[in-house]
Amino acid sequence: MESAIETRFMLLMTGINTREQQKAALSLATTLRLRGIMSVFALTQGSIFAKIFSERGYEVVDTSNFPQSKNLFSKIVRALKMQSCVQEAAQILKVKGINAVLSFGGFSAYPLLEAASKINGIKMMLFDGNVAISKCNEDFMKKADRIYFPFEAMQENIDYEFYKKSFVAGIPVDREVLKAEPAEIQSSKKRKLLILTCKKETKEINATIRELITKYPEITRDFHIIHETGDREIAAVNKYYEAHKIESTCEMFFDNRGSYCKVADIVIARPNSDIIAELIALKKPAIYLPLPKNKDYFQKQNAVFMAKKSLGYIVEDAKSVNAAARIRKIYSFLNSYYRNEDNMKRNMIELDFENSANRLADDIEKILKSGKK
To answer: Structural domain boundaries of the chain?
Structure first.
């Protein structure tokens, strides 16, 4: 049993401010625990993720609230609070006997990384799940012992000083997603189109799907639609499909997305790092609909990268592209993906995100055991 394994090292994980970061951190922590490396999670007071980690048997320590916004006011407040927060962080690191700090990129990691850089013997590691490097991790690259990237292209675009201590591992994916049994969908032999709305701008994706069906009703002849949406939208989405006699399966946010991804032929989704990781691991092509940069800094860059590397398609947000052209583009991809599917799957197999958690754990364990940078 996992609980019977002797703890050899203590790793503190921090900078976890989004659900994507939480998922990657939990997947990695689960893998590390089997090797005797126990994770402690440092979260700002009131974090919605504290309960998730605690229920999995991990210790959670509260840290003082550290403004996350990038605006000028938050920057000033962070500067004023930095000294006291670093002192608090140093106390946590010493009391908990921490051997290494791993940042997932959120601003809340600043005090803990700064404190770790001043204490001999504590290793500092940085992880980024998006194509672009987070501002917090970028600021600590010089002091870091290891920098983890999901894709080789990121490693190739940094200075040699950082390249030497970088490592390409992919993005950890929850074992439950990888081992999930395919969902039982009561339908004909139609192909399966999976819609993942995530929790940002849910209505916009739902409206896009309705526009797509209105413009190209033949889609419903070719696809059974599996639609994930929020509690405020599910009744309206179900009503729409029933009124138009569209073969569909509509659910609120899936407990295990892997079950539905496994039966999908193609997916329409936001390009969040966790969704990208899961679809790469499960070898599923996707049409990515990124939010505008002012609403999500990383989505557009993720989607552009996926399209460039033939790992998926990108369709610009409604404000960037003519609405009719946007719908036409989605329809075109839905009709042509099967011609590119084999090539996309080969590209995903080469990335091997199924083993990302193990690759990260191997390297973290090596650094902890050797003490080398």
So the answer is: 2-168, 177-351
Mean pLDDT calculated for residue range 185-193: 84
CA distance 227 to 205: 10
Reading the block at residue 166, the tokens are: 């970088």
pLDDT in tens, 136-178: 999 999 999 999 999 999 998 899 999 999 999 999 999 999 9
Please, what sign has the CA dihedral across residues 50, 125, 162, 117? Answer: positive
Instruction: Using alpha carbons, select from 271, 280, 270, 104 the residue that is nearest to residue 177.
Output: 280
DSSP 182: P
CATH 3.40.50.970 fits domain 177-351 = no
Q: Both tokens of residue 125?
A: 């590691």
Question: What is the residue-wise DSSP string for 199-231?
Answer: SSSHHHHHHHHHHHHHH-TTHHHHEEEEEE--T
Cβ atoms < 10 Å from Cβ of 128:
25
Nearest-5° angle of CA 342, CA 21, CA 201?
75
372 φ, ψ to 5°? -90, 150
DSSP 3-state assignment of 146?
Answer: strand
Distance CA(150)–CA(102), nearest Å, equals: 15
CB 164 within 8 A of CB 173: no
Q: How far apart are CA 77 and CA 75, in angstroms?
A: 6
State the pLDDT at residue 362: 97
- Cα of first residue to Cα of last residue in the chain, in angstroms, is 32
This prediction has a pTM of 0.92
Topology alike, domains 2-168 and 177-351 = yes
Q: Which residue has the tokens 């970061």?
A: 21
CA angle, corner 268, sides to 265 and 272, nearest 5?
120
Superfamily of domain 2-168: Glycogen Phosphorylase B; (3.40.50.2000)
CA distances from 219 to 68, 216, 223, 335 (A): 42, 6, 6, 9
Phi and psi torsions of 198, nearest 5°: 50, -160
